[in-house]
């Protein structure tokens, strides 16, 4: 055994935890992104090698983003909604790219979790009673799963390599944020084994009209505070996937340090936060959520949260309450926002 490679020991521990099960449920967060989908399908390869006859990837919500749907289609990733799953059909449960107790993870509280593999920071009050491998210093869970497969000397099929490569690429935002040496190592390794045509089809998918309506709504809503803090509120949306997508897109505006995107979905305020040089996105998301009886957190440059609206005594008007909360958290209570759309029209001598 190569004692210099810590993953060899971690893989051995995982194998011991899983065996002798013949059926395993792989549970992702409710609105799965490429990272958790790739991690799930990578785990399926590993489990199959260990003699697990049945493994199923599942999630509690749905998949809304066009790229994610294309990823499932072109890479043949087998997923089933959680409402069609019978827990009794599975001997073990693995949670990937999430953590028990997270607001975005649907799971029967009576069912024991056996394994958790994630790269998001978590605060554990007590030592968990399951196999737990958390690497918050790594940019994606796909990197961890790639390392597991390499340590187990498990061949990685082309479609799985493509999924893992895309998982790393998207969760590190094209290797531009929260990227570690391990992310780079796995990214370079996988590059030679991926299906480049399938990847291009995933990254440039056909889009439905709702995407373009969201873009238009985002431009109209875009408000800038202190010239460096942007906020977009999308109103009522059909999928929370749009929130992170719009936050990423508009954060590319050259003058912005902060980008906050919020929306209403299933009686909750959902929001995503992005920063460029400040490393407090996760702390900020947590503080905003805490002030409004919600939950939030994340990494240094990207974070998210959700706040219940129904029966929440601190929320009278969802949008006003949220804006007040993030302005207070960021110390810009007295700042009056400027609407980007109105300023653009004024350049042409028009009025709204």
Question: What can you see in these coordinates?
Answer:
- This protein has 352 residues and is an alpha/beta fold.
- It has two domains: 6-203, Alpha-Beta Complex (inorganic pyrophosphatase (n-terminal core)), CATH 3.90.1640; 209-345, Diaminopimelate Epimerase, Chain A, domain 1 (Roll).
- Helices cover 38% and strands 19% of the residues.
- It contains twelve helices and 13 strands.
- The chain has helices at 6-18, 34-49, 66-74, 141-151, 158-171, 181-191, 196-203, 209-221, 241-250, 281-291, 318-329, 340-346, and strands at 23-27, 54-59, 79-81, 92-96, 115-118, 131-134, 223-225, 229-236, 258-265, 268-275, 295-298, 302-308, 338-339.
- The strands form two sheets. It has a seven-stranded mixed β-sheet with strand order 11-12-10-9-8-7-13, with helices on both faces. A six-stranded parallel β-sheet has the order 3-2-1-4-5-6, covered by helices on one side.
- Helix 2 (34-49) packs antiparallel against helix 5 and helix 10 (281-291) packs across helix 11.
- The chain is globular.
- The termini are far apart.
- Mean pLDDT is 93; it is low at 347-352.
């Amino acid at each position: 055994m190569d004692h210099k490679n810590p993953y060899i020991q971690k893989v051995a521990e995982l194998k011991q935890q899983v065996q002798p099960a013949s059926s395993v449920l792989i549970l992702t967060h409710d609105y799965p992104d490429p990272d958790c989908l790739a991690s799930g399908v990578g785990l399926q390869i590993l489990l199959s090698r260990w003699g697990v006859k049945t493994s199923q990837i599942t999630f509690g919500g749905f998949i809304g983003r066009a790229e994610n749907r294309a990823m499932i289609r072109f890479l043949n990733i087998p997923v089933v909604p959680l409402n069609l799953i019978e827990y009794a059909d599975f001997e073990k449960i693995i949670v990937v790219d999430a953590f028990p107790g997270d607001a975005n993870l649907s799971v029967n509280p009576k069912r024991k979790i056996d394994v958790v593999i994630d790269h998001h920071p978590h605060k554990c009050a007590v030592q968990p009673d399951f196999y737990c491998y958390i690497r918050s210093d790594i940019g994606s869970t796909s990197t961890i799963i790639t390392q597991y497969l390499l340590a187990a000397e498990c061949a990685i099929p082309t479609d799985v390599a493509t999924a893992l490569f895309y998982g790393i690429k998207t969760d590190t935002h094209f290797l531009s944020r929260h990227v570690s040496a391990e992310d780079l190592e796995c990214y370079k390794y996988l590059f030679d084994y991926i299906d480049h045509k399938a990847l291009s089809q995933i990254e440039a998918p056909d889009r439905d009209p709702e995407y373009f309506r969201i873009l238009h709504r985002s431009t109209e809503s875009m408000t800038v505070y202190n010239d460096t803090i942007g906020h977009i509120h999308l109103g009522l949306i059909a999928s929370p996937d749009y929130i992170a997508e719009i936050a990423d897109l508009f954060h590319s505006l050259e003058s912005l340090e902060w980008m906050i995107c919020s929306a209403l979905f299933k009686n909750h305020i959902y929001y995503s936060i992005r920063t460029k040089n400040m490393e407090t996105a996760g702390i900020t998301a947590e503080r905003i959520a805490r002030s409004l009886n919600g939950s939030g957190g994340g990494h240094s440059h990207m974070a998210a949260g959700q706040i219940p609206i129904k029966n929440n005594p601190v929320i009278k008007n969802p949008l006003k309450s949220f804006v007040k909360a993030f302005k207070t958290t960021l110390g810009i209570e007295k700042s009056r926002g400027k609407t980007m759309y109105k300023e653009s029209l004024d350049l042409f001598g028009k009025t709204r």
